Amino acid sequence: MTVSTTPDTSSHAANTVLARTREELAATLAGDSAPRAVVMTMGALHEGHFDLVREAARRVGAGGTVVVTIFVNPLQFAPGEDLDAYPRTLEADLDGLAAVLTGADGALSVGRLVVFAPTPEVMYPDGEPQVRIDPGPLATVLEGRTRPTHFAGVCQVVLSLMHLTAPRWAMFGRKDAQQLAVVKAMVRDLAVPVEIVPVDIRREADGLAMSSRNAYLSDVERERALALSRALEAGRAAARDGASPAAIRAAAQEVLEAEAGVEVDYVAVVDPDSFTDLAGAGLGLEPQNQQESGRAGTGQSENTPGQHAHGLLALAARVGTTRLIDNTLVELG
Questions:
Q1: Which CATH class is domain 16-199?
Q2: Which of 130, 181, 178 is nearest to 156 (CA)?
Q3: Domains 16-199 and 212-331 share a fold
Q4: Contact 87, 44 (CB under 8 A)
Q5: Which site in 98, 115, 135, 159 is 20 to 30 Å from 191, CA atoms measured?
Q6: Per-domain residue ranges for the chain?
Q7: Which strand (E) or helix (H) includes residue 68?
Q8: Are 324 and 213 in contact (CB under 8 A)?
Q9: Helix (H) or strand (E) holding 161
């Protein structure tokens, strides 16, 4: 079989390239010495993703290269999860990316936009990878307890995409706070020469955190889902009043549990880097099972070693058949 090494530049904005194979991506990036940032997504892009792209563009500057990967990674889905149902909207994603990075003069605000949209066969040409990444204790709590294989799959694809795209910066949203912490730890511990850049959560006008999975919600379910952001606000209010981590957690949990049609998975207050349980709820890591991780030197640490100036109030709940996550940083007295 002959593999194309010619990326697709037809029907896309000037200086925008769509690469579907490793060879096409390599050919596109060959000899490119401009500053480069990557945004890794599973597609179905929304304004939260576009915030990552805007930050990538800000980092690389007018002559730089922004790489956006669009890949629904089967390794991070467990049997029975929504792998097959996950929305795939490549053409709309390409249009959205071009719009975000195109100025009033019709030109890209960066030197080049490269979109890498591989299939599973491209990412894993020999089938199931023989060498796997163990994301460690950080991946065993909260999301890792509910989805025990998830972060191993995330690390597998993130590290592969870092090798294939060779960026200086990689943008990750704070909405997936545990993923952010796991990726920062992987980059630190495996000495990957990439700076991880956290980007704040984008919310709808009514407070709902933007997510591709919001498309699964009916009108009634979407209204119920607002309980997540209300729970976070209750936790922030408790924190402003000087409440303990346990009381902050209780304030958020009370709001979430009061909403009909919302099934609570967890409400936790943890250290945002190490995921040490700060509320004594048995949900995060115990102190002896982790090292204080203000040393996450390739990203931005919220706390200094041995101190907890900030906690991460993290929650997950199922609304109908849709599982949603959300979080906020809270100041601790």
A1: alpha beta
A2: 130
A3: no
A4: yes
A5: 115
A6: 16-199, 212-331
A7: strand 65-70
A8: yes
A9: helix 150-165
Q: How far apart are CA 52 and CA 43, in angstroms?
A: 13
Question: What confidence tens digit (pLDDT) does each residue in 163-213 have?
Answer: 999 999 999 999 999 999 999 999 999 999 999 999 999 999 999 999 989
d(CA 159, CA 40): 11
Task: State the greatest distance between any 2 C-alpha atoms of the chain, in Å, as a whole number.
Answer: 66
Q: What is the reported pLDDT for 291?
A: 46
**Letter for the amino acid at 19?**
A
The fold of 212-331 is Pantoate--beta-alanine Ligase; Chain: A,domain 2 (3.30.1300)
Structure tokens at 270: 């943890």
Grade residue 35 by pLDDT with cuts at 50, 70 and 90: very high
CA gap 274, 236 in Å, rounded: 21
The phi and psi torsions of 18 (rounded to 5 degrees) equal -105, 115
pLDDT score at 304: 52
**Alpha-carbon gap, residue 112 to 210, rounded angstroms:** 27
207: DSSP letter: S
| Nearest of 263, 12, 43, 237 to residue 114 by alpha carbon | 12
Cβ(55)–Cβ(197) below 8 Å? yes
Residues in Cβ contact with 296 at an 8 Å cutoff, skipping those fewer than 6 apart: 181, 184, 185, 188, 273
Active site residues: 49
